[in-house]
Specification:
single chain; Ubiquitin-like (UB roll); 99 residues; binds FE2/S2 (inorganic) cluster
């Protein structure tokens, strides 16, 4: 099984993780601290902007989709605690609510 490359742009750190790993777990493996709250896809504290291949992430579950819609963040943003990698490369660009 091919590992998935996850880059944390602001921290300048990259890890290679198993498919199915959440971005939050990848951050932990990379030694990147990220503010979180519920860790269940409900609070939106960890919404991030991403650059990723089209199928690099598993599609969001209903609860994640609902939280992102409620927050009104731009399309393509995901929650670190809920987004799971699938293949290829994902680049976490930064907080979804930052300028
Ligand atoms: S920590 Fe609450 S949505 Fe991810």
């Amino acid at each position: 099984m091919d590992l998935v490359e996850v880059q944390f742009a602001q921290a300048g750190k990259t890890v290679f993780v198993q498919p199915g790993t959440t971005l939050l777990a990848a951050a932990g493996m990379a030694g990147v601290d990220w503010a979180t709250g519920c860790t269940r896809g409900m609070c939106g504290t960890d919404a991030v902007r991403l650059a990723a291949d089209g199928d690099a992430l598993e599609p969001p579950a209903d609860h994640e989709r609902g939280t992102l819609a409620r927050m009104g963040v731009e399309a393509g943003c995901r929650l670190l605690c809920s987004a799971r990698v699938r293949r290829g490369r994902v680049q976490v660009l930064g907080d979804a609510l930052a300028d």
